[in-house]
Amino acid sequence: MGKEGNPGDGVLELFLSIGLDERTAKNTIANNKVTSNLTAVIREADVLDGCDRTVGNLLYSVSTKFPANALVYRPVLLKYIISSKIKTPAQLDAAFAFFSKIGPDDFKLDEFEEACGVGIEVSPEEIDQVVSAVFSEKTSIIVEQRYQTNVGELLGHVRKKLPWADAKIVKQIVDAKLYELLGERTAADDEKPSKKKEKPTKVEEKKATVDVSPQPSEEDLNPFVIFPQPKENFKVHTEIFFSDGDILRCCNTKEMLDKHLKVTGGNVFTRFPPEPNGYLHIGHAKAMFVSFGLAKERGGCCYLRYDDTNPEAEKKEYIDHIKEIVDWMGWKPFKITYASDYFQDLYELAVELIRRGRAYVDHQTPDEIKEYREKKMDSPWRDRPIAESFKLFEDMRNGLIEEGKATLRMKQDMKSDNGNMYDLIAYRIKFTPHPHAGDKWCIYPSYDYAHCIVDSLENITHSLCTLEFETRRASYYWLLHVLDLYEPYVWEYSRLNVTNTVMSKRKLNRLVTEKYVDGWDDPRLMTLAGLKRRGVTSTSINTFVRGIGITRSDSSTIRLDRLEYHIREELNKTASRAMVVLNPIKVEIVNLAPDIVMDLDAKKWPDAPNDDTSSFYKVPFSRIVYIEQSDFRMKDSKDYYGLAPGKSVLLRYAFPIKCTDVVLAEDGETVVVVRVEYDPLKKTKPKGVLHWVAEPSAGVEPLQVEVRLFDKLFLSENPADLDNWLADLNPQSKFVIPGAYAVPSLRDAEDGERFQFERLGYFVVDKDSTKEKLVVNRTVTLRDSYVWLGTCLIGERASME
Length: 801
Description:
Blueprint: H1 11-17, H2 22-29, H3 32-45, H4 53-65, H5 74-82, H6 89-100, H7 109-116, H8 124-145, H9 151-161, H10 167-182, H11 203-212, H12 218-221, E1 238-241, E2 247-250, H13 254-264, E3 269-272, H14 282-297, E4 301-306, H15 316-328, E5 335-338, H16 343-355, E6 359-362, H17 366-374, H18 386-397, E7 407-410, E8 425-429, E9 443-445, H19 447-457, E10 462-466, H20 473-482, E11 489-493, H21 505-513, H22 528-534, H23 538-548, H24 560-574, E12 576-578, E13 580-581, E14 584-589, E15 598-603, E16 616-621, E17 624-628, E18 648-651, E19 656-664, E20 671-678, E21 689-690, E22 693-694, E23 703-710, E24 734-742, E25 754-757, E26 761-765, E27 774-780, E28 786-789, E29 792-795
């Protein structure tokens, strides 16, 4: 055991003395964990009187990045930093990488020094020589791209050849070489490169482009590469600092790990542990990807475990929904379990916890517990005799104590800087039947007590959760340590936050119960049931999540556009095409006889070969057709590709038409009928191409469908940050068109079937559809911009070409 660095009044001065700027020092003090780590590092390095800024920055990196599994070697690294044998960030990163891969008995000094470049001095002349070689190899690209050349890529090439070179000198020489080769910057050098990609004219040019593209990193190709193997779970990876100066260094003994590996066969075991108190949202999609994905990638197993420790909030509806969604997302659980399956084990371990003097029965009210925690004061019952707590806990189990009159609390550390060590509640009394366990129990374990123990009992190798649980890591390992149980490897990753929505179950529940939305599967919600009903595929969600990666950066919110991009990419390949007119205007083809109906071929897939009959569907073409109101104007303009008096357009899959007359209503403005002539020989070659729907026979109205258009549910990107978040609801997030016209082939479309309605977007058949009425939801527009057509929001008007 060692002593904890306890931040006090002089911490700011201490941090400033090692060269941190005031802003960084103050931000560090705001984080108790980093403050404690940095203070400990300064003491270990014996620089309490200060040091130069270069050394101080390296010490700061040690406090935030040093591998937790190798804390025993931290003093060794600090000696090398203080003696300037390790003096650059590159050397320090190499040291971190070296220590992360070795066990407690594997350290060899010569290998360490070689890995970190100790004693290697790189002269400016050597740097100049390597930079010249890189420029010689890349001259043509640099001359072509001039000052828009990716300098970071050039520096990377130099770094590969001279990993221990001074980065500042390398940058100075690279800048000098650029100036020598290119001369002064021009105005053109400062222009932003065009986003429009020119189509390559030769195969060779395309190959050249591929050759210079940066290769994806190993982590990009396999995001699970960051996780250790189960056999490595003997390394110290977490330190818990106690207020009395003790430090708990968390790891498994060799005997404990060997016993675990014998049960698991050395395979990865993970778990996806949702609480069945609501519907899963897109954040859970990331959690599934991380836990199920790691197990799948390593050939291991993942439990679907219901965290059902609170019977008052849980319903069978939620349990069934979770199983259905996990299956829809494409994940196959190794086994489905419940925390309640282990209630007897958890009870027996609670008794053992009392026996070891690590838990006590408490009678404080919730308000008193809160007050005492804020003041870091012990409960009056904290030191009651063990036998007394035994008897009272048995009375709690037998229903002899009223609800709210007693709890079992863990005896942790009331003076800790971590509030999750303030004697957390392990058991509380609830006279409520359990959805899975029935009425056998009237005491129920808390999440903080049950979660880690069940992880251990199920031999979980990697306990993966989001960053808000990081401060609970201390309690997690403390409990397993005092009960002498196997300790899984805990790792936290950033939550998935998406713009223009809320993700908290409390807020989602309020939206549903107070009827702001139409249930948990409302297509405007980011619940997985809502996304499914909106027509989003599980494949596109998983691709979106994989693209984000498994990071620990907790400050970013992903734009909704990014998810929509992956949805479009998927549906563009899988959704067959059809034509629907949302806001129809009547067009009469005056040179086509009323009794003539032509059956034309329309493509389901744009790239389908013409000889593949299965890739086509029939559309009737008759004297009366309908186009979008927005595709007709009384006054033409150069940038308008729609229909106007005297102008021609092409009806997709059909013929060119030319407007010859317009019939107006009595108000002299409202268009009643647009009269046109069609070109049966297709000699006319207009630029504009319109989608359309025709009467299937003379006087018969086209198929009517109800179309539901959805937009962002909230106006602000981060509505959860607003005090009155409900006031930010978008009043135009849902728009219903009850009488759109569709081609006849959609008549037999089934629930869940997806289409691209040409020029409008991607749509899915809704579960509200009946034999009498087809209802479709818009999944996403064709592009990520919108236009208003009258009172109706539809996708960006199409490319007419």
